[in-house]
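Lecture 7 notes. Example A: sequence first, then its structure tokens.
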Amino acid sequence: MLDTHVLVLNRHYQPIHITSVKRAFAMLYQGVAKAIDRQYRLYEFEDWAALSAVDHDSVMTSRQFIRIPRVLVLSAYEHLPKVRVRFSRLNIYARDQDACQYCGQELPRSELNLDHVVPRTQGGKTSWENVVCSCVRCNLKKGGRTPEQARMKLLKKPIRPKWTPLVRGPSKRITYREWLPFLTLAEISYWNVELQSD
């Protein structure tokens, strides 16, 4: 359980990082962060430790079971890390969710390759906007042609991603339902809209 993951939010409830359960407990114990439950209540370490661990993921200490907090809110940190997403094979696979952008088949990365939408022989650049994942079958079928010339349809237009570090974390998919309110655009807007004062 100590190797599972916890979402870390800044004090404005914006996701900034994914950390291990071990590190999350250290941050909670040191008072650097507070745990948040499904009803969006914040807890310091002592209060969190006093909650029942029944029916929840938990770890055993020398005295008791303690629930694993799946989301932490940092007490003082309010910034979002500035990150430039590297143009790399790994990040292209992550952007395209390990799926061929022509047939949609999800494959292990060892069975995928990269395709220039507009081939280099026709002036296509090696860039975020012109490179996609493809399966070997579709890549061979397309050859040195554009999708239109090969009578193939690109499932979605390739774009430069604007990821935060947490998206590039250990898994490409959201792992815990407790994270959902902080990772979907509509929910993030709810937490970060400026409220009118009377």
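Example B, a different protein, same format:
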Amino acid sequence: MYSSLTSRLWGDIEDIFAAILEHPFVLGLTDGSLPKEKFRYFILQDARYLHSYARALSLVGGRAPTPADTALFAGRAARAVAVERTLHEGLLRDMGLHEEAVGETDLSPTTIAYTSYILCKVHGGSFADGLSAVLPCGWIYCEVGKAVSERGSPDPLYQRWIDTYGDEEFKEAVKNMLALTDRVGETLGSEELARVREHFITASRYEWMFWDAAWHEQRWPLPQAALVSR
């Protein structure tokens, strides 16, 4: 049924991806109805997330099977830090916020859970474990970018976000990552393949949860001051 590892992995998350495309946050991006405060929340959390994600990419790259593969991860990490950081800074500025707002933003429960999960698999598992944990972020964003690029957005702010994840350079980076995943997939035994699928599905669920957390502007159930005072 499946001709490659990536086709099998995508088959595992088709329902998750469909739910992402139909999420009110994503629909609001394309029809322009998304409230700005929800988008602001998303950008601030995404900026915090990317720091850990870039670190995870670098760590996975250090275990890559060839120097060319290591360079691939280094380039992806550099993009996460540079290109997407530039996007965030520009969007935040247009929303009346300064770069310092990122450092002043508390990590949401979902952001902490997602980044902790990725770093746990990168540190504690094999190269394939780490690869499968970091893969959903870029791949799903690329596919979301394709879908929302077809729709576009009447809001210039949202259209700028769409353009970033729908450009050819981003697509090429993801394509190279997928080719590496298929190459690695040919070497996996049944036990490691099962772990890879589990990590990929779990990280993909976190992708949906990240959109949902932004939609609900997720906060901790107890204020920090109440916890510190106990």
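Note on Example B: Residues 224 and 230 are 10 Å apart (CA to CA). The longest helix spans residues 190-216.
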